[in-house]
Amino acid sequence: MTSSSNGLARSALITSAIVLSSLKTGTMAETVIFFGLSIAVATKLVYINLRWTSASGGSAFCAIARAPYHDKMKIQYLGHSSFKISTGPVTIVTDPFDPGRVGLPYPKIQADLVLSSHDHFDHRYLEAVTGDSFVVSAPGEYEFKGVKVRGFPTFHDDKGGAERGKNTVYLFEAEGLVLCHLGDLGHLLDEKVVKEFEDLDVLFVPVGGFYTIGPAEASKIVSQLDSKIIIPMHYRVEGMAESFDELQPVMAFLGEMGIEQVEPKDELSLSSKSLPLEPEVVILKSVA
């Protein structure tokens, strides 16, 4: 596990010569030599320039093809406050937790980028993460392979951190989408911070209370931030350790939102074109 990163390779050039035999042109079989194959990878698009000529030298052809690079984001729930967010070239994992102490299973997960909101066992268990990951665990501005991250200092309680310390809220951009992970936020956000979160697409919000904001406060923050998709996290589920008995279930949050029922999804796939017109609460099943 390291905290170093490589810059995003925005273009690549591949030149090759490929010999294909017995390519039929009309009624004749010719050997065709392809040359000058170049691929330029730009943001979300792949451009392919292809040139070829026949061995007989009688013809030449140039074609340009364009295809999508990666146009969808996939979000999977790993339990508690942890999510796997697949963005094409980068896999992001938020707040990995210790399964032995939380009481829930947690998979060995590969990640390129890890966002940890604070240094507690249920939000920074790096032993569960494989790969040469770039770990972000403090406020500041970061960029990793095209994913832009901003960390905002907040608190784990409503007493300025006196009870449970500090918490980092992350705002990050990938695939043309803006996401916000509130970590173990313990208080309402002031207007100065709220202004930083305009045009939010996905909000991961703790809703269980006791250690974080509860259902009522979470509902207020949802109204403040006006995200298109709201994904609740950090609530009580069956099997959790006794230390989490005080957490409320997700239904308490749905009640505050005036929602009777939400059908849980296995995962969420989305792009900037598939976002709902009105705010939507999405509950994800844990894949662990």
TrEMBL record:
Keywords for this entry? Answer: Hydrolase
Write out the transmembrane intervals: none
Any one Gene Ontology molecular-function term assigned to this protein's record: hydrolase activity
Which Gene3D superfamilies does the entry link to?
A: Ribonuclease Z/Hydroxyacylglutathione hydrolase-like (3.60.15.10)
Q: Which domain of life is it from?
A: Bacteria
Stored InterPro entries: RibonucZ/Hydroxyglut_hydro
The protein's name = MBL fold metallo-hydrolase
Annotated organism of origin: candidate division WWE3 bacterium
